[in-house]
Structures are given as C-alpha cells and as structure tokens.
Amino acid sequence: MTTGRTVLVTGGNRGIGFSIAEEFIRQGHRVAVTARSGAGPDGSLTVRADVTDAASIDAAFTEIEAALGPVEVVVANAGITRDMLLMRMSDDDFTSVVDTNLSGAFRVVKRASKAMLKARFGRIVLISSVVGLYGSAGQVNYSASKSGLVGLARSVTRELGARGITANVVAPGFIETDMTAKLSETQQADYKRNIPAGRFATPGEVARVVTWLAGDDAAYISGAVIPVDGGLGMGH
C-alpha cells in the first residue's frame, strides 16, 4: 500500500491474528485489534469486543474511528474451536462456533462496510482454514463455519465490488502456533507427512499474504480463496 491505512484485525491478541497485526504495523499502517482478553502487538490499539454481540462490535468501531479514523481494511480472524465427533456434538457446540466464526465475521463486515461505501474503498479479508473446504473429522462445526466465509466473501464481492471494495478469503493450513506446539512429535510428524511442503507454515507467511491482499497490487482480486497450506488442500 502506498499510504498508511487504518486496519482492524479481530482476535489480534494471539496466534495468526497477532502476526497479521504485527505485519501491518511493520508496513506503516494504523492498526487496531479486537480482543476479549490480552492485547495486540506493540504499536496497535487494543479494543475490547465480542464478535457475537453486534452492539459490542459497533462500540469497538466507534472507538477505533475516533482514535485512528475510518476503518479501511478489516481482517476477520476471531475464531474458536469446539472439536467433537458428530454423534457427541451438542447443539450449543455447533451454534457457538458458527456464531463466533461465521456470524461474527458477518457482524464485523457489515459494520465496516458503512465507511468503506462512503470512501469507495475497502479491503475485507476473512481468515478461513484448509478444513473449510477439505473437511476434518471431529470438526463439523468449525469446517462449516470456515466454509461459510467463502459464500460470505463472494456475495459481498457481488454487492460491493463496483464501489472499490474487495472481499477475499485466506485459508491457512497447519501453522506453527501454541496449538500445534501442543501436539506430540508423532502427531506432528503424521500431519507433516500429508503436507507436500513437509512442514508447518510460520504465522508470518500467512500475515504477508493478508497484507498483500489488502494492498494496491491486489486491487483486482476479489471473491478469491487463497490457500496458505503447503499444498495440503490442493485447491479444495
């Protein structure tokens, strides 16, 4: 991007979200993160927000707009997992994951679109997962929520594309985070055997794809699903 923009990363207090916020800061942008607890990287504005609550999202945007100006780039990254086999999964296990991961992205994008339409510019990046299209046993709720982001991005593209707004999906595979670090060496080796690249990604590798999509070079890309998975999903 040629000039610094106002960027919001939801769930920017840890993992991939933290790295995405860090990379935007490194590139000279004004960055806010939402978090239910903890804080974003140095140089970011952390605001408390719960993506399952529209009023909370609205208040967070109002706070960010007052401090940094209208949000021009939004990265919907906040997400939860409640992994369980289908037969044991409760209604609440399913709906809570969908409400955070999919409905949460909808609430954030809807609120962000107001200023984007006025400015006739916007970059929307939704953080999905390889399992959104590839599927994963024990993750019916998570996979469904991450798959839904594709339909969301593509419909937003058709609605808002003529106003200088793009909406894209980044689908990471296995990333070196606290979550993968907890896996045993045997489990890690099993996963890596299925990844053509033979390794997990670094969070920075995902972050740089996100910042590229938000930049001027990707102005004509919208409704796309960009896998960052070392070849695991093969376009699924």
TrEMBL record:
Residues spanning the signal sequence: none
Record-linked Pfam families: adh_short_C2 (PF13561)
InterPro entries: KR_dom, NAD(P)-bd_dom_sf, SDR, SDR_fam
SUPFAM superfamilies according to UniProt: NAD(P)-binding Rossmann-fold domains
Domain Ketoreductase, first and last residues per copy: 5-178
Keywords: Oxidoreductase
GO molecular function: oxidoreductase activity
Similarity-based family: Belongs to the short-chain dehydrogenases/reductases (SDR) family.
NCBIfam families, A to Z: PRK12826.1-2
PANTHER family, per database record: 3-OXOACYL-(ACYL-CARRIER-PROTEIN) REDUCTASE, 3-OXOACYL-[ACYL-CARRIER-PROTEIN] REDUCTASE FABG
Name of the protein described by the UniProt record: SDR family oxidoreductase
Species in which this protein is naturally found: Cryobacterium cryoconiti
